[in-house]
Amino acid sequence: MTGPSNAETSLDARLVAELPDLRAFVRRLAGGGATSADVEDFVQDVVARALRYRAAFDAERALGPWLRTTALRVFIDHRARGANAPQALDAQSDELVAREIASGERMEQREELSAMLERLDPTEREALVRFHARGQSVREIAAALRLPEGTVKSHLHRARRKLARFKSSEEPT
Amino acid sequence: MNDNELFWERVNAALDERRDPLADEQVQALVAEDPARLDELLALRERIANLPTARPRRLVSKVASLAAAVLVAGTAAWFALRKPQEQVASAPVVTDSQTVASELPDPRSCVISFEAHVVIESANMRSTIDSDGEHVVRSREVFSEPSGDDASQPAFIASIVHLNP
User: Fold this and answer.
1) Is the pTM of this model over 0.90?
2) CB-based contact B52 A29, cutoff 8 Å
3) How far is residue B12's CA from residue B33's CA, in Å, rounded to a whole number?
4) With a cut of 0.85, is the ipTM above it?
5) B30 interfaces chain A, CB cutoff of 8 Å
6) How many CB pairs below 8 Å do chains A and B form together?
7) How far is residue A106's CA from residue A127's CA, in Å, rounded to a whole number?
8) How far apart are CA A153 and CA A147, in angstroms?
9) How far is the alpha carbon of A70 from chain B, nearest alpha carbon, in Å?
């Protein structure tokens, strides 16, 4: 009977050392609505997948980015399954209650979002809302705003970067 | 191009094609390299999902201001054109078409048709005059005098109707 190789032992040890950072990353990915149990389940799925594909890992590389990439793939798979899978009735009612509780928070978020939109350049804001909220194409926006398509794209791209970087009132500035 | 520029280029390319940036392998690798990018990406995704579908507030307020200005101007014009009719109605005595016609608005104004129904009432007479703006089309006088037992209630005496063909 042969025991684990030195490389495997080394990977296991490194994996254990990476767990706190991985847990923090998963918590971010899962969002504020996730419970500690959800996060632990998620971390276990990530570690299980990492161990399944350990042969693909280059021991010379840093483990953290590889684990986080694995976490992102697990997250995307979970989301795809969640979108297709039918939910149990209890889960649906729990979700309804959670939605009621969250509705107040959503009002605040919308107000905050409105304030962020006000901080954008008017053309950036117009391009962003037309593209993402009204589903218009870049060509349609360009025609409506009488701008070249490339200019509309530039405005749209700048608007996204700004919108992503605006600090929420809950975040430290 | 540095990693940050590359990250945003990939994110924007995915969003331009209405794909999930997190499903892009290069985005995943860049997020894995710097988890702070995940925060930006998730914040962007949430904010995009909550964007209002209505026109931005400044544009709405401009449209609302314009509509209000048009409404005020329209109301003012309506009152300006309506005033001469009211003056005719409040005149003490209107006897012929010339008087009615002289009270009409300036013909250069935008009134395209005009009709007047004038009612003059006194203690023992009620006169109604219908005008098409130039001629008295119909006039009618009803004469009465107070009845003996109740002075406040006039008694009917005669009615005269004039019709101009």
Assistant:
1) no
2) no
3) 19
4) no
5) no
6) 92
7) 24
8) 10
9) 9
